[in-house]
Amino acid sequence: SEMRHERVKRTKTVCTYCAVGCSFEVWTRDRHILKIEPTHGPANGISTCVKGKFAWGHVNAEDRLVHPLLRDGDHFREITWDEALDVIEKKFKQVMRDHGPDALAFISSSKTSNEESYLMQKLARAVIGTNNVDNCARYCQNPATMGLQRTVGYGGDSGSISDIETAGLVFIVGANPAENHPVLATRIKRSHKFRGQRLIVADIRKHEMAERADIFFRPNPSTDSVWMNGVAKYILDHKLHKPEFITKWVNHFDEFAKSLEPYTLEYTEKITGVPQATLITVANEVAAADGVCILFAMGVTQHCGGSDTATALSNLLLLTGNYMRPGAGAYPLRGHNNVQGASDFGSMPNVYSGYQKVEDEAVRAKFEAGWGVTLPTSTGKDNHQMIDAILDGSLKAMYIKGEDTVTSDSNAGYVAKALAQLEFFVVQDINFSETCRYADLVLPAATSLEKDGTFTSTERRIQRIYKALEPLGESKPDWEIIQLIANRMGGNWKYTHPSEIMAEAASLTPLIAGVSYERLEGFNSLQWPVHADGTDTPLLFTDKFNFPDGKARFFPVTWIEPSEEISSTYDLHLNNGRLLEHFEQGSMTRRTAGIHEITPNSFVEVSPELAEERGITSGRHVQLASPYGRVRVQVLVSDRVQGKQLYMSLNSVDQPVNNLTSSHTDRQTHTPAFKETAVSMTVLPEQ
Ligand code: SF4
């Protein structure tokens, strides 16, 4: 009826799942979410995937957190916000008095807004006085950022998503975009099918994009930097590189050329298992293509050599002149909706917003003046170091927002043991996560549909989200909660809207100097760097790389063997990743019933060869065990995996893959080596 129609509200927002950054209008009537309608999304046009279109059940889920909860023995009781803030004030002050500010630590969320990550670092640094602040990019994307910062100076996608369609060759390494970045994958499928774009996939698992690829090869696990160097050496030896580009734009060529000497075709084949003929074909394709985009994700980063592999792929792009033009460059495919922004806005232990170093005195002086405080001088602890610091007794209190650390971090048993030892632990989330079970105090946060703010997508695109619904119950937007805590601790903050937080961040951060809510109004968006006059940067490098002399740098890397060796006891390699229908551990997507039912059980993919050897078929239960723990899962026999490779979805709460992963990390960034896991598989009796 007319009346009903009038009550329908249409609100522009951005998807809360992956970092493709699809934007659309959400239609609501009262608290009902009626539909998602893509209209003018810059990244997605009129498309969305199943998650963006349907997976909003978490917003009105019956088990949303709607009151602060205080631990009372082994259960929790509802308390008021005032009581919750009293507890925080008392405990934080007590820990600060007894142990100093570095006994506290703060973890922001890659799901919350830019403004909220900015405030989280400000709370830690300006109010508490510690640089112990991080976000979950530590679990995934930091090695990608490191590899690009070393070579080209900025850790971000080289161009826009739409540019990928113009590349002569798309090269996907250790990423599964058809399931994890579906709308982006659709664009590649289209340009591959209809515009003659070449597609190469390097992965240990034959996922959908691998099936479509012109060339698909399976390197041995954790050897990607070796074939990248091998391919680079072949290109150099056959003079297929771009000397004019290198002379003009890249430093340290001689060092790099020398570092490639060991990577003969024979050595490369021996380590990687990739046949020499394939290496030669790949080298020729990369050298000849009219623009190469390398898309990569966790298959590259989550190894002890993750940063080095990201570096090696950037070296290869520099060698072949594949930067500084549309349809070329490196595309780290960011996972969460705002994993790019959580780091951009300073929730990291070594940098303020815009990657300005805390140890740089001039930078620190600027933030001290801007915030009116004296700031701590040395780098803080990252997520990984925080866990160790709890166990060595130096870290006593922690505040985590929007992060299910127990299931997301590697070696879940070790992490849980640490969190249980905290003197005081606050967790803020939209529902009661596994991590909440270890909390002393749980704070109810608003969902993305219940607040204003901005997210930054994988293509460095800053986009507005607008409030479609009031926060459910007594939940509050994260920025409001952080401000309440800051003010209890003497912060004297007076933000009335996220636009004011953005204005402050922009005034202190050259990377986003020209960002304002006025400029982002409606479906407008800005890709960083955004200059003071409001011009943005769809193509990241046009007339210089981000170093003082404007030149990029070759950065030689050496390969190290994977941390968890296949042995006679742990004789299989376990890989892991997401499923199309779910996000991370499924705490949000599993709250939409129709989506939960598609893949209700945890499963492990087993190759037909291995299934035959062990005498098992699909549906059989097995126990996987590593030195760190075990899980019980159902078998799915699949030729996506080969030989002694297993693959398990990480979208599982009941049998988390991180019971099996180790505490080994990337050497440079401490990102866990999730993809270096050796396990045994025991077939369980039939039920
Ligand atoms: Fe959301 Fe990513 Fe799907 Fe787009 S592709 S609708 S951003 S999950």
From TrEMBL:
The family this protein is said to belong to: In the C-terminal section; belongs to the prokaryotic molybdopterin-containing oxidoreductase family.
GO biological-process terms attached to the record: formate metabolic process; nitrate assimilation; respiratory electron transport chain
UniProt keyword terms in alphabetical order: 2Fe-2S, 4Fe-4S, Electron transport, Iron, Iron-sulfur, Metal-binding, Molybdenum, Nitrate assimilation, Oxidoreductase, Periplasm, Repeat, Signal, Transport
Enzyme Commission number(s) from the entry: 1.9.6.1
Highest taxon, organism lineage: Bacteria
Name this polypeptide is given: nitrate reductase (cytochrome)
Residues of the whole record sequence present: 267 to 953 of 1004
Enzyme class: oxidoreductase
Entry GO terms, CC: membrane
Coiled-coil residue spans: none
Role: Catalytic subunit of the periplasmic nitrate reductase complex NapAB. Receives electrons from NapB and catalyzes the reduction of nitrate to nitrite.
Catalysed reaction equations from the record: 2 Fe(II)-[cytochrome] + nitrate + 2 H(+) = 2 Fe(III)-[cytochrome] + nitrite + H2O
Co-factor(s): [2Fe-2S] cluster; Mo-bis(molybdopterin guanine dinucleotide); [4Fe-4S] cluster
Signal peptide: none
Domain 4Fe-4S Mo/W bis-MGD-type stretches: 8-63
Molecular-function annotations in GO: 2 iron, 2 sulfur cluster binding; 4 iron, 4 sulfur cluster binding; formate dehydrogenase (NAD+) activity; metal ion binding; molybdopterin cofactor binding; NADH dehydrogenase activity; nitrate reductase (cytochrome) activity
